[in-house]
Amino acid sequence: MKKWASSIASAFFVICGIFSVYFLLVFLYALETGHFFAVLFLLFALILGAISLIGLLPLSASAGMTLEEVKAFNVNKAFNENKAKAERGDRLAQLNLAYCYNLGLGVAKDEVEAVKWYRKAADQGYANAQRSLGLCYLNGEGVAKDEVEAYAYFNLAQPWSWGASGKLAILEKGMSPDARLRGQQRTKELQKEIEAKITAKKAGK
Question: Considering the entire predicted model, what is its pTM?
Answer without folding.
Answer: 0.68
